[in-house]
Every structure is written in structure tokens, then in C-alpha cells.
Amino acid sequence: MYGKACAPEYQGPLTTLSVNSSLTDVLAAGTEQLRAAEREGRPGEAARSGLAVAEAHRRLGRVEEADRAWKASYRAARAAGDVAAMAWALWSGGTLARQRGAFPLARRLLGLAAEFGERGGDVVVRGYSLAGLAETGRIQGDYEAVGRLHEQLLAEARRRGEARHTVWALEGIAQMHRNTGALDTAYALFEEAAEIAARAEDRRGHAWALRGLADVVSVRDGDTGRALGLLSEAETTCRAMKLSGALAYNHKMRGNVLYRAGRHAEARTWYERALEEFRAMGEPRGEALSRLGLAKSLARLGRDRRETAAELADLARTLERIGLRHARDMVARAQEEFGVDAGTAAEAAR
């Protein structure tokens, strides 16, 4: 049995905020409490209020503001001698680093966060940090290394009845199954995640689960109408909560669904929109995936073969540099699909 989803990153005076609170509301409340704590010389409260500020900025796609905020939260926590609050700040910084494509830094910060969480006796931040490490490995395509950790964290979340963490783990495992072709298993896991999130009133988790379901429905069933309907439902939540990153990934997935349906001109429009959104928030993974979809759409719409080859070759180098193995494999498949290789790209460069 799962209770109502909570947001442990909203701490101190901000515990009254809901997991579904609009991020603009979180930012306003967190900033107000942070300023009051700083005026009154309460570094512990400043650290915890600053955490909410950092997370609101990160989820709104304001990466520079988020970077300053988590570091300020860490400094305040250190001044207060609050090891658990230091762990939460490191978790926020590690999550931001992953969002920005800085995977080695993400692993270092999240590893420290897990260590500090254990030292500070905060099992929740330790769990969130280990989950962050697992997600970092999953995004990079290192499924064998992090698959067991995902399963372990899922079991722990189920045992404690933590709906939000259960939903996160189910979605991560589902994504790995989807990417390795086990579509029925992926669908069942995304469906369970959506059901738990809905019962626990975790709208963010529900929106991500709907996106996953839309992907599988599109690939496995070829049901474009249902997939687009699921994405529209998820988009309503993303807009209501100001989830900039989730909305951009929703738009990118809409492009995927339309591309699979052969509606390449529509797909191009959505990939262009997602690309603009990811660039605005400095999200290199989403940017690269949108570029890939856009390159494929343009190729289907008659783009010069040499231009397609050059674009895909550049994407391959970008993904290799970032360290996204699964996405790099996707580019290789696109190069095969369109019959372009390194030789074609070299010819285009001459």
C-alpha cells in the first residue's frame, strides 16, 4: 500500500509544499524563506530553503541559477554543520550535472551525497543519491552495471511504501526494457508506474509514465492516435506544473511518434520545437536526440544525402564526447537506414 507522494526536497518551512506544487510557486516560497533565514543568520534554514530554490530553478531549465543555488545551499549547510543538508545540496548539484551532460561530475557529486547521507543518518537522501547514480548509468546506456541497483532501489521503495521512488524505479527499469526490445515488459512496468503515481497524486511521475506508455504504444502497436492522446494528457500536467524539461521531452517524443507514422513534416516541426527548448535550458542529451530526429525527418523530406551524412557524423562525435552509448547506437542505425557512412560525410566536407 502506498501513501500520498511527498517531496522530501522541500524542507524546513517548505514542508507544506506538495509534490505537485507549481515550480514558480516553489521558487517564490523558497526564495522568501531563504532571504528570511539569511537575514536572521540561520544557515541551517538557509541551506534547506536554498535546496528548494535550486530544484525549482533546475526543473524550470534555469541551469546557471540552479548551479549558484545548490552551491550556496551547500555552503550554508557546511556553516551550520548539517551533514544531511550538505548531502541534499550535493544531490541537487549531481542531478543538475547529469541534466547538463556532465556525467563524471554527476557521479562524483551523487556519490558524495550518498556518503554524506549515510553519515548524516538521512536514509532518504542516501536513497535519492543512489537512485541518481543508477539513473546516470542508465542514461549512458550502462544497463548491466545499473540494472541490479535499479531493482534493489525498487525493492526498498516498495518495502517502505514510498510511492514516488517506486514510480521512479519502475520507469527506469521500464526504459531499459524498452530500449532492449522487451516491449511487453516495458509496457507493464510503465502502466504500473502510471497507476501508482495516479493513486499517490504524483502528477510529475504520472506524466513521465504516460510518455513511456506513448512510446511503447507507438512502437509496439502502431497506435499513433492513442500515443498522441497520452502525450497530450501528460503535456497538460507539464504545463500546469511548469515542468520545462519534461515538456521538452514530451515534444521530442511527439516527434518520434509522428516520424514512425510516416508524418515526417509534422515530426520535423516538433523536433525543431523540442530542439529550441533543450537549447534554451542547456540540456545536451535532449538537444542531441532532437537533432537526430530532425536529421532523419529532413532526410525523409528530401534533404541532400551528403548533408544528412555530415549531420549524423557530427552527432556521432557529439554523443561519443558526452558518453551516451545508447544514443550513439541510435545514430549508427540512422546512418545504416539512410545509407550514409564516414566516407559520405568526408565527401560532403570536401
UniProtKB/TrEMBL annotation:
Keyword entries, A-Z: Repeat, TPR repeat
Keyword Cell membrane: no
Organism: Streptomyces prasinosporus
PANTHER family, alphabetized: HTH-TYPE TRANSCRIPTIONAL REGULATOR RV0890C-RELATED (PTHR47691:SF3), REGULATOR-RELATED (PTHR47691)
Source species, domain of life: Bacteria
Keyword RNA-binding: no
Full protein name: Tetratricopeptide repeat protein
